[in-house]
């Protein structure tokens, strides 16, 4: 088909030009409209269940709430993992469904399961919140809001009321999370002495306020002939009116609420705070919705913020702490800079070989004409310019020009025989047409299986595989249509070459050296094969010495630091450690700004610090180097765990994570502590931590059954009284104070300063069955105790996560050393390890890549069999595949790059590239043998005639990959292993292919000849 297309193109130049002009314009328009993102948009079906119970400890929540929720949803189909985290007052269960499950249906199923057991859950919990996890990743940008004239309270109100409302109108914004600040509340701080004096409890006060402070509908009427709504307005109009609100005592008397304590328009007790470079600030972060484009959302948010800066008072100052948009844009720019440079280097290589500016110009046209139409297909498939599609385009640089090089080089060889350009283009395109189609089919056969390898990796790699395949098919279309057409019109005739070979007089001419080497190999075929086998086996022995991992972390310019204090630490304690860490890091010359969020995740003993570094070109140290310098100083802070979050981790906050699970908490705890201690002794594994939380101090109230029964006091009354007095009512039960644009909760509880005295708790009055009150210490014993601060569960078992960061060691090597620790060999019978984190993802990707690669090899063989209508010749071509492995592994070993995700991608590309070279040799050998040339002469002629195009395509690919191998661009260090694997593999495989493939073909041809003789003999016997 290809040579018919080529001859048609030569005869119809206008049609060809119009077609390519049209698809180029469509491609350019599509490129302008393509979104820029960090990752492909994939729909991962995840549903979360969040339940809050005021005052509940993790132990009670686990048994009374979490386990029941897990049991209820466990029977649903297509569940991959159930993860639960239980902390003070909160139970969060996340259900990860199998990829491809309808998320909306899964959410409905989970909601129904939770509703079916609602009556079995405690009655005082907030209503369970079931929702699909509908935002893509973490925050995409974070701002700080500061003012010299306004308090933190005023800034909090500004962020909640004006800034968040404006930003939530931006398409693609899922959440606006405030960092730091306070929540406005109407506080009714009751005095214990006043409650005691008037014989009333905080619970009764709260109920009276809640029952009367309501606005409710009252129906409709038609008084006066008009339909009118009836409204019952019981809500107080002002704070002063609330102070005067009459509270009915047990004896029937009334007393103003203000006489029982302070009533004020104030703020809730702070549970979080934020600091910018050590100064108090209120910040906000933006989370985007699934399906949105990160850079588009980020640009729109920044535009809204600029508009707010113009409309808000002049004293309000916005500070952009960090944005992922800058890193993605720099990655995008770096990729295209490398792509353009690679194109230029490729064209230079072609020019040096062909030494004809016209032919070089024609070849250079192939790159843009192959890439630009690809953007149209990407737009049609709703792809974005993300890490995977940009990687595909970068990978295609050295591949797209190969077909054009093969075509124009063959046409040039016909010109050197004295043919006119039209005839040379005609004959050259017909001669090499099958080889061009075969090489393209093999590239597509290599990469398309990656797009359909399943799971999360399959979703990520689908845009990658499709983009590479589509661009390769366009390159073939260009090579078989516009290249022959332009050659027939633009190239000039050349004088016919003399029949004698000029290189024969030059002993060390490359062509003469190759000729002698090929002759020797064909005459010593067994030795040549043995040497190739030895090289392949020796190359496999390099694998243990190469670092193995997922992929290296790029330099994003943003480091994150986790701060964790022992359970029971106060917000002020955590703020003190954060300020100490700030003083350590801020003087560093690479640091630009530090934003600290104390109370991260709702826990006052935890904080998250964002360290924004100076732009990459303005500092002398990398992000990784900065972390290695600062880490020892942060680790020395007493009484706290201060660790860096991994920038390269896909699934968690640390580079390496190990999950242990068990139904026996004691065995799990013992094993986890031992393993944590042993992991800390592994060189290169730093900041080893365990999710096994320390115990948290508690005040335990133990009701006395005898006294409580005698006095008619229930355990529920005791718990409800203490909870409401010290925390207030559950959120959905709180009375509301109505403002014109919103409602503010009214929280009734004992004054905060009174809660610091245990006598306040002892003297709380608890209601009896007859309505009278007794002191709490009359029916219960109070003592100090302790309990877990946090519990984690994995697939309905207790779990402990042990994690650490890597410093000078690869993920694979660290994982191997952890598995060899005594604590893991063997694990106790009741404890088991669960694959988790980057280690699980790495194993998943490696196994899926192995399957996809096997399918790719099968596809290559099937395609070649169909093209050549033969089973043995394709086998000869396939023998070039193992010859590429050695160079790739050697390149990774010498540069000490990880054998990870990107190196595997490079090896996959090698499969297609080395197959191209073998196809050229086999195709021309078969063409010569069809003209009755002897096998030896055909092999020698094919090798000598194809040496130039093979060297041209190899060097052009190396030139195209060179900028990536040198780690140019924003995330060049991440993609560098891919290019190094390709360059190393091409260097060795090209030489071996040129020598070994002719030898293998000679054996195949002998086998074919033997087969023909046997068939002929068999047929003669049948005739006899």
Condensed summary:
The protein is an alpha+beta fold and 1024 residues long.
Structure write-up:
- By secondary structure, the chain is of the alpha+beta class.
- The protein is built from 30 helices and 31 strands.
- The strands form eight sheets. Strands 1, 2, 3, 4, 21, 22, 29, 30 and 31 form a nine-stranded antiparallel beta sheet that branches.
- β29 and β30 (797-806) form a beta hairpin.
- α25 packs antiparallel against α26.
- The longest helix is centred in the last third of the chain and has 52 residues, at 972-1023.
- Mean pLDDT is 81; it is low at 499-505.
SSE topology:
Layout: H1 2-11, H2 13-33, E1 46-52, H3 58-74, E2 79-87, E3 90-97, H4 103-116, E4 129-132, E5 141-146, H5 152-168, E6 173-179, E7 184-190, H6 192-198, H7 202-212, E8 215-221, E9 228-233, H8 239-243, E10 246-248, E11 254-256, E12 261-267, E13 273-276, E14 279-280, E15 282-288, H9 294-311, E16 317-323, H10 324-354, H11 357-380, H12 387-415, H13 421-451, H14 455-480, H15 482-490, H16 510-523, H17 525-540, E17 558-564, H18 571-585, E18 591-598, E19 606-613, H19 623-635, E20 641-644, E21 656-662, H20 665-679, E22 685-690, E23 695-703, H21 705-711, H22 715-726, E24 735-738, E25 743-750, H23 758-762, E26 765-767, E27 773-775, E28 780-788, E29 790-794, E30 797-806, H24 811-819, E31 831-834, H25 837-868, H26 872-878, H27 885-895, H28 901-930, H29 935-965, H30 972-1023
Parallel strand pairs: 7-25
Antiparallel strand pairs: 1-3, 1-4, 2-3, 2-29, 5-15, 5-16, 6-15, 7-12, 8-9, 10-11, 13-14, 13-18, 17-19, 17-20, 18-19, 21-30, 21-31, 22-30, 23-28, 24-25, 26-27, 29-30
Helix pairs in contact: 1-13, 1-15, 2-11, 9-10, 10-11, 10-12, 10-29, 11-12, 11-14, 11-15, 12-13, 12-14, 12-29, 13-14, 13-15, 13-25, 13-28, 16-29, 16-30, 17-27, 17-30, 25-26, 25-28, 26-28, 26-30, 27-30, 28-29, 28-30, 29-30
């Amino acid at each position: 088909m290809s040579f018919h297309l080529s001859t048609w193109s030569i005869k119809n130049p206008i049609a060809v030009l119009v077609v390519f002009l049209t698809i180029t314009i469509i491609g350019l328009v599509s490129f302008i409209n393509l979104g820029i993102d960090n990752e492909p948009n994939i729909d991962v079906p995840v549903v979360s269940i969040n339940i809050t119970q005021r005052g509940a400890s993790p132990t009670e929540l686990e048994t009374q709430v979490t386990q029941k929720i897990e049991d209820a949803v466990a029977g649903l189909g297509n569940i991959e993992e159930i993860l639960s985290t239980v902390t003070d007052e909160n139970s969060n269960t996340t259900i990860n469904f199998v990829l491809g499950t309808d998320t909306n249906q899964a959410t409905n199923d989970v909601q129904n399961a939770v509703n079916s057991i609602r009556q079995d859950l405690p009655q005082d919990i907030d209503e369970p919140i079931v929702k699909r996890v509908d935002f893509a990743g973490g925050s995409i940008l974070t701002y700080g809001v500061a003012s010299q004239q306004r308090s933190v309270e005023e800034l909090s109100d500004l962020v909640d009321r004006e800034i968040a409302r404006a930003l939530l109108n931006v398409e693609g914004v899922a959440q606006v999370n405030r960092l730091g600040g306070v929540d406005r509340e109407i506080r009714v701080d009751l005095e214990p002495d006043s409650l005691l004096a008037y014989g009333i409890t905080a619970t009764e006060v709260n109920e009276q306020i809640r029952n009367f402070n309501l606005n409710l509908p009252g129906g409709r009427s038609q008084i006066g002939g008009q339909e009118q709504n009836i409204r019952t307005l019981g809500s107080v109009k002002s704070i002063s009116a609330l102070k005067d609100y009459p509270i009915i005592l047990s004896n029937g008397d009334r007393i103003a609420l203000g006489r029982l304590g302070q009533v004020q328009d104030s703020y809730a007790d702070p549970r979080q705070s934020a600091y910018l470079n050590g100064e108090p600030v209120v910040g906000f972060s933006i989370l985007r919705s699934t399906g949105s484009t990160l850079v588009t959302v980020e640009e729109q948010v920044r535009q809204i913020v600029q508009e707010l800066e113009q409309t808000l008072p002049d004293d309000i100052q916005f500070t952009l702490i960090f944005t992922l948009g800058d890193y993605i844009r720099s990655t995008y720019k770096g990729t295209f800079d490398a792509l353009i440079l690679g194109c230029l280097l490729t064209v230079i290589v072609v020019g040096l070989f062909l030494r004809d500016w016209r032919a070089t110009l024609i070849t250079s046209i192939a790159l843009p004409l192959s890439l630009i139409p690809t953007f149209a297909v990407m737009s049609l498939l709703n792809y974005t310019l993300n890490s995977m599609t940009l990687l595909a385009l970068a990978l295609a640089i050295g591949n797209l020009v190969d077909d054009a090089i093969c075509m124009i080089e063959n046409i040039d060889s016909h010109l050197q025989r004295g043919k006119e350009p039209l005839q040379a283009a005609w004959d050259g395109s017909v001669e090499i047409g099958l080889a061009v189609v075969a090489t393209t089919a093999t590239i597509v056969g290599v990469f398309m299986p990656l797009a359909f390898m399943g799971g999360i990796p399959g979703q990520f790699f689908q845009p990658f595989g499709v983009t590479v395949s589509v661009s390769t098919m366009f390159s073939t279309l260009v090579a078989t249509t516009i290249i022959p057409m332009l050659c027939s019109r633009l190239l000039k005739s050349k004088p016919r070459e003399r029949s004698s070979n000029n290189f024969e007089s030059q002993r060390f001419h490359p062509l003469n050296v190759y000729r002698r080497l090929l002759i020797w190999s064909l005459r010593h075929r067994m030795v040549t094969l043995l040497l190739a086998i030895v090289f392949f086996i020796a190359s496999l022995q390099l694998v243990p010495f190469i670092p193995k991992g997922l992929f290296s972390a790029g330099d994003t310019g943003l480091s994150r630091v986790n701060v964790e204090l022992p359970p029971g630490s106060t917000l002020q304690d955590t703020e003190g450690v954060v300020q100490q860490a700030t003083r350590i890091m801020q003087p560093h010359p690479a640091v630009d700004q530090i934003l600290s969020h104390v109370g991260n995740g709702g826990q006052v003993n935890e904080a998250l610090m964002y360290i924004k570094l100076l732009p990459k070109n303005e500092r002398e140290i990398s992000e990784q180097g900065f972390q290695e310098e600062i880490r020892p100083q942060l680790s020395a802070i007493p009484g706290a765990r201060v660790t860096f979050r991994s920038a390269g981790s896909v699934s968690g906050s640390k580079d390496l994570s190990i999950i242990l699970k068990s139904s026996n908490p004691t065995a799990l705890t013992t094993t986890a502590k031992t393993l944590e201690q042993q992991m800390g002794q592994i060189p290169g594994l730093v900041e080893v931590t365990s999710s096994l939380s320390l115990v948290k101090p508690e005040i335990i109230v133990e009701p006395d059954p005898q006294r409580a029964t005698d006095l008619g006091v229930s355990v529920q009354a005791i718990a409800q009284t203490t909870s409401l007095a010290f925390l207030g009512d559950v959120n959905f039960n709180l009375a509301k104070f109505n403002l014109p644009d919103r409602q503010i909760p009214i929280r009734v509880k004992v004054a905060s300063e009174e809660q610091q005295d245990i006598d306040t708790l002892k003297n709380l009055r608890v209601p009896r069955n007859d309505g009278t009150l007794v002191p709490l210490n009359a029916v219960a014993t109070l003592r100090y105790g302790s309990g877990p601060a946090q519990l984690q569960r994995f697939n309905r078992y207790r779990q402990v996560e042990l994690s650490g960061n890597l410093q000078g060691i690869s993920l694979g090597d660290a994982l191997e050393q952890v598995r060899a620790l005594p604590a893991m060999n063997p694990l106790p019978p009741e404890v088991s390890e669960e694959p988790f984190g980057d280690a699980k993802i790495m194993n998943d990707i490696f196994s899926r890549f192995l399957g996809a690669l096997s399918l790719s090899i099968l596809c290559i063989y099937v395609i070649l069999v169909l093209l050549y209508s033969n089973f043995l010749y394709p086998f000869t071509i396939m023998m070039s595949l193992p010859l590429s492995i050695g160079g790739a592994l050697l390149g990774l070993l010498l540069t000490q790059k990880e054998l990870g995700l990107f190196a595997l991608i490079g090896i996959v590309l090698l499969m297609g590239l080395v197959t191209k070279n073998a196809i050229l040799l086999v195709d021309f050998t078969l063409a010569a043998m069809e003209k009755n040339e002897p096998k030896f002469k055909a092999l020698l002629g094919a090798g000598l005639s194809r040496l130039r195009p093979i060297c041209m395509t190899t060097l052009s690919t190396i030139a195209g990959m060179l900028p990536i191998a040198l780690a140019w661009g924003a995330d060049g260090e991440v993609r560098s292993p891919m290019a190094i694997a390709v360059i190393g593999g091409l260097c060795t495989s090209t030489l071996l292919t040129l020598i070994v493939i002719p030898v293998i073909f000679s054996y195949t041809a002998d086998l074919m000849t033997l087969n023909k003789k046997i068939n002929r003999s068999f047929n003669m016997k049948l005739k006899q």
